[in-house]
Amino acid sequence: MRVHQILKTKQLDEVFTIVPGTKVSAAAEIMAAKRIGAVIISKDGKQPEGILSERDIVRELGRRGTGCITESVESMMTSKLYHCAMDDSADDVLQQMSDHRFRHIPVMHDGEMVGLISIGDVVKARLMELAHENDALQGMIMGH
Fold first, then answer.
1. What does the radius of gyration of the chain's CA atoms come to, in whole angstroms?
2. Quick check: 73 pLDDT over 80?
3. Environment class of residue 110 by beta-carbon count within 10 Å: exposed (0-12), middle (13-18) or buried (19+)?
4. Distance between CA 87 and CA 21 in Å, rounded?
5. Are 46 and 53 in contact (CB under 8 A)?
6. What architecture does CATH give domain 3-142?
7. Phi-psi map region of 65: left, alpha, beta (phi>0 left; psi -120 to 50 alpha)
8. Cβ neighbours of 111 (radius 10 Å)
9. Measured distance CA(59)–CA(71) in Å, rounded
10. Per-residue pLDDT at 11 exceeds 80
11. Measured between alpha carbons, how far is 21 from 74 in angstroms, rounded to an integer?
12. At a CB cut-off of 8 Å and minimum separation 6, what does 80 contact?
């Protein structure tokens, strides 16, 4: 399965972005309201400058205490972003996520961000693919 196929299966295909300078507390409110695990930091919504995840916030709360939620997202966002392309395979994306220990990855096409997929999206797509393969093999064995 390819990334463009994974994007089509997502119930929520909108990428939530926030501009640099946004307070961490506002980012957390957006994540809670939208029930998402990460937001992209971007001036224009097309070029990602960083990503802020639930894990980033919790880690910094544990390190620095609750005062850090009044800081801007740049203080705790991950600025070294990995990304994937529309034609990348689910296996390659899953490997990249596992190797670098992150759960969300921007999808880039022609130099612009066109989506965001989570490790859950990739695993779900991979499980669907395996189920289809299993059904096909069972059909072959049964002579259908």
1. 18
2. yes
3. exposed
4. 33
5. no
6. Roll (3.10)
7. left
8. 7
9. 14
10. no
11. 7
12. none
List beta partners, residue 113.
Answer: 108
| CA pair distance 44, 49, nearest whole angstrom | 10
Tens-place pLDDT, residues 86-98: 999 999 999 999 9
Alpha helices in 1-144 (DSSP H): 3-9, 24-34, 54-64, 90-100, 119-142
Rounded-to-integer distance, Cα 71 and Cα 36, Å: 21
d(CA 94, CA 100): 10
Give the separation between CA 80 and CA 113, rounded to whole angstroms.
Answer: 15
Q: Are strands 38-41 and 17-18 parallel, antiparallel or unpaired?
A: parallel
